Amino acid sequence: MSDILVVYKKNFEAVHDASLGIITEELQRCSEERGGLRIDIRARERVRRADFIGRDLVIVLGGDGTLTSISHNIDADTPVMGVNSHPRDDDPEGSFGFYMDSNVETFANDVRQALEGTAIVNDLPRLQAIIDSTSGNRFTTDPAMNDLLIANTHQYAPSKYHLRRGTEKCEQQSSGLLFSTWLGQGAWLSHAVSKDELKSLKSEVKPNEIDDHYFVVARDLPHEHRATMPWAWMDWTKDATTITSDMHRGYVVPDGWDEVHFNRGATITVNANAPRLRLLTFRQSMNEKLTS
Question: How much is the pTM?
């Protein structure tokens, strides 16, 4: 392993600059030990898709938001490790860093595990939405690690759509459809439903389903509509979910970042068939971390 890309969070806070200095020095030591590594360092705001091609390792320095904002650029066969540059354990204003299993204190050992191929490899499923416009154009969104939202661009207006899964169909309106991976349940999903509702939904989950299923929730769906088509209100499924928009203008938002807009009549199909993410951890797997 010799070709490394470091992507870092740059917001002019001294703590992030200090963390970057520490891992840069450690990477130089690794390079000297191993007889040379190619190391490129890019700020998150300046990195481009071409920067990720052909890398042996991508190191993301920041918090979960830094990783989710650039993860769609990372190919399925490229290992990525997250390094928390400002852990909440050290500062209440810091990052929780669920996906960032390394920090500046553990980085020296962690990066050597990554380089030697002895780290834990988490093969994470990701969500995608395929948009078919009324004019015949097709667009696939960036893959989402955590969650994907489909809603009216005007948040004060209801999201109206026809919902279909297999042979089951219904027409409904809500404040938007939220789709979540298993690991993404701690993001928007935990705020979209109550703790009891989430507990009930998770009770349906079998261990062998985590890699290819996803959660679906119709946010703020009227209570009288929840009992008629339970799968259309809250579900855990591996089947593709298709909606036909009855909104003047809507959007799909993967992981809370880039918005992809569509008009009335567009068809949006969501599934968990996006390219997967090869995330490295060093003390426990991501599934163990979620349940610990």
Answer: 0.93
